[in-house]
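Ticket 4471: requesting a sanity check on a complex prediction with zinc ion. Repro inputs:
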Amino acid sequence: MPGWNHLRQSRHERGYGRAWAKARTIALTRDLHLCQPCQRAGRTTPATEVDHITPKAKGGTDDLANLQSICSKCHAAKSAREAAEAQGRSLRTRTTFGLDGWPVWPEGR
Ligand SMILES: [Zn+2]
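Returned structure tokens:
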């Protein structure tokens, strides 16, 4: 499953062009360069990226209202979650079932 390997900036981040670069700067300035998901969780983390709150794949726009500053860790987690959702399952609730029909818990529990 893809997801956690996406800590690097993707190729198309550069391909967004000047309008995106401008919106990105405005969003970071508005959010004081702090990761918004971390802030909501009571943490103060510098943001290194700007995220679409509603992913473009789901009809989100480049409008400032749909942009939030985000740290690479939150961004990776959000992308992984969205990828999992797109595949119709969640990373957190992935459970395997044994031959007896009961869920098999990961080792080391
Ligand atoms: Zn964060």
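Notes from triage: Residues 35, 37-38, 45, 70-71, 73-74 surround zinc ion (CB under 6 Å). Leaving this open until the requester confirms.
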